[in-house]
Amino acid sequence: MKEKTIKKNELANFVAGLLSDYQVFAPAKEEESLVLKEMQAEGDIDLDIGVGPVNTKKSIKEFFFPQKERFFSYDLTKPGEMEEPVLSDKKRVIFGVRPCDVNSISVFDAIFTSDQYPDPYYIKRRERTTIVAIGCNKPETTCFCVDTGGGPFSADGSDLLLVDLGDEYLVQVLTEKGETLVNGSSGFSEPKSGVLQKRDGIVEEAQKAIKSDIKIKKVKGWLDNNFDAPFWDTVHEKCIGCGTCTYLCPTCHCFDILDETKGEKGERIRIWDSCMYPQFTLHASGGNPRKSGKERMRQRVMHKFKYFVDNNEMVACTGCGRCVKYCPVNLDIREVLKQIQVS
Amino acid sequence: MPVSMCVCRLYFSKQSEKCIRCYACRNACPLCYCEVCCVDESQPQWFGKSVALSDTQVFHLMRTYHTAGRCVDCGACVRACPMDIDLRFMNKKIDKDVRELFSYEAGMDPEAPLPLNTFKTDDEDEFIKG
Fold this sequence. Notes:
Shape of chain A: globular
Low-confidence stretches of chain B: none
Distance between the termini of chain A: 42 Å
Number of helices of chain A: 11
Mean pLDDT of chain A: 94
Distance between the termini of chain B: 27 Å
Helix content of chain B: 40-55%
Radius of gyration of chain A: 22 Å
Number of strands of chain B: 0
Shape of chain B: globular
Structural class of chain B: mainly alpha
Largest sheet of chain B: none
Largest sheet of chain A: 8 strands, mixed
Order of helices and strands of chain A: EHEEEEEHHEEEHEHHHHEEHHH
Oligomer: heterodimer
Number of helices of chain B: 5
């Protein structure tokens, strides 16, 4: 792995240089929250992402798996004809993505690039994207990435990882895509002596700042044997059954496919779906195997921390903490997991 | 269209664009008591389920009208919304209309009939004769 440094005041130049070949997205403040916004012209997004909220409200997943995807449109008066959208080939860089979000790409890859069910929409978007991640010097109180196999400087899934060293960034070049970006710019230099030690200190401090103590293997062991435990009877009680946790989650990937029609015309679309909704498993007969909040909450925990591990050898949670932070009733998944591990 | 109405429409569009259809507002709302919400009906499917602006706007308009004359502005929807949508905006407008048209303020008198749930056959307004 190559390592370079770039002065903070050179960063805007580097990103502006990308605009001729790439669409560039970067975190921008909108009202009180961060959103990933397309940079239209040099300097229209302030790249000093060290201030304000650490992470964007919505995760990176919508860049690969949009909440609404149109598969094709049809007109019943023209049988056999359909119009499919042409997906863009334009290369793009998503800048300033946090490690929890880049780590979520491994979860998506396991599902959407599998040999069994490769998803052409996902694959095409993934191929045209280069990700520049930035580590988290100051994790938030809701962060628990260290418990789920990641960390505030975990690079898995990114092409470049930036580490904020104060007046400059240390840049870890992780893939060929990342190398192409670095080679196209003159702002990078070799790290001076002491820089790597400084980085190690920052990483260690950030990891220590994440105060959580979830033993993910222990949780899995309990889940393996406790589908019918009384624990599930009460843990869901304060959940109001909204989809906030699933829609803001960087790893939740369940969807529904439906036709929207108007007269003779219609389109087939894919939209996000949520296991927290009663309709998620509603059968055409009217029967519902997950008829109450108990079954639905159990499914969400089981899918993330047992079924996904059984099938893909990783948990479907990156510890980003969005579900903790935005849950309207403060149902904290960390507390649920801690209760499980002492059961 | 008056300028103020254009501004309101733009503002409402901007707010609706943020919606992710998580239904936290509806589920936290003390007035939403329907066993199956009309946006969740599938046979027939009354509402589009996507986050296209027309779909999110219709969802919020439907909720505003369904709670008209009943909403006491408790703010549960605003507190529940993860996307910081100004959900009180439309309700406050309806609240004002109900006060002006019916001299009624929701939540002040538990015995008073709800203005949008009652009618008089001898109402002197034209609309009732439709």
